[in-house]
Please model this.
Amino acid sequence: MPKMTVSLINGSYLFEPSPIGLSIVFIALDFIGVLSNLCIIYIITRTRPLWSTSGHYMFVISLLDCLTCWNFIAVDLQVLDGEINVYLCTFNCCLSYGLIYSRMWIFVCMSVDRAVMLRYPLRYATIVTTKATKVVLGIVCTCSMATMVPIALQLIMFREDGYMCDLNYTSHSPYIYVFMASCTMCIGLIILTYINIFLMVRTQQKKINVIVVEKDNSIIQTHHRKNTDFKLKIKAIRMLLFVIGTFYLAWGPFLSLIIFYEFISKQNIGNHHLTRLCFIMMRVSFSMNFFIYLFTDRVYKKGFKRYMLYLDKNKVQGIGSNSD
Model:
């Protein structure tokens, strides 16, 4: 494949227009991402039992994904002409990275939230309140967006192999190293938190041996069973694992290419087809949460049937969400 070049002329990046087929795929996936996340937001807004701590996290993640996909659509429409304004490119890059970076730190907060739920089951409702969750989400999103300001200082590039504005990872700016270190720290904190969760789950599973005494008090039987509350906690953790796992599985290949080619070797990625495949996977991941919630959270599923399909005529009652 011939090498593609990008020229900066009169405040705009000029490049070979994207193939119409690739643009259609990108725009279609972005629109699906916007619609699916708007559906999540609508269902959470209408379903009162989802106005919980976990529901707030689900709502903000969907809002971030919706804005990210909408931002991608703006770039997709620009690259059809083979030209994009530098300032628009800078804004899109800052916004995209700010939203995705916020998502990564929200995953850390959600993981810590699940660990606290298991560690302090009786005090969880008083330790983690919806008001505290809103404050944490506000701080995380504000700080994440603020850290993207240095991108505007000429640390951007137009990635012709993926037709998007991106960080210039070949730069020797200290900000690039700090940004990569913080992303690595997010992943490390999530891994450590889930190791802790795994150990707590194993410990609680061994302790849940319910002793049942028959009426005549003659036989004592030990039954190894989990109580309902513990099952709901396990399902909530499983749902979160699916959400985080889908995100990193979709973004992992591209991040690996960035690290090994541009961040370490300081050279551009040579395989354009592989890069575009990575961008398709990333776009698909934005619409996956809709299906993950549908199959792992019974209250969300009930809200989906009532407010999207109009199949469930009974009012969604305040039963405990699997994500609580």
